Amino acid sequence: MKTRIRDRWRNPDQQQSAEKNGEALGYVCWQLALTAARNLHAEDFVYQDDVQRVAVIREYLIFLVHAADRLAFNDLNPTDRAAFVPALALACARQFHRNAVEVLGSGDYQAQFIETLNRRNGHYGECSFGEELPGYALLRAFSDHIQAIMGNDQTNRWVMDQVMDIDGPDVVRQLAKSMSNLHADKTGGAKTSSA
Question: For the chain, what are the domain ranges?
Answer without folding.
Answer: 18-182
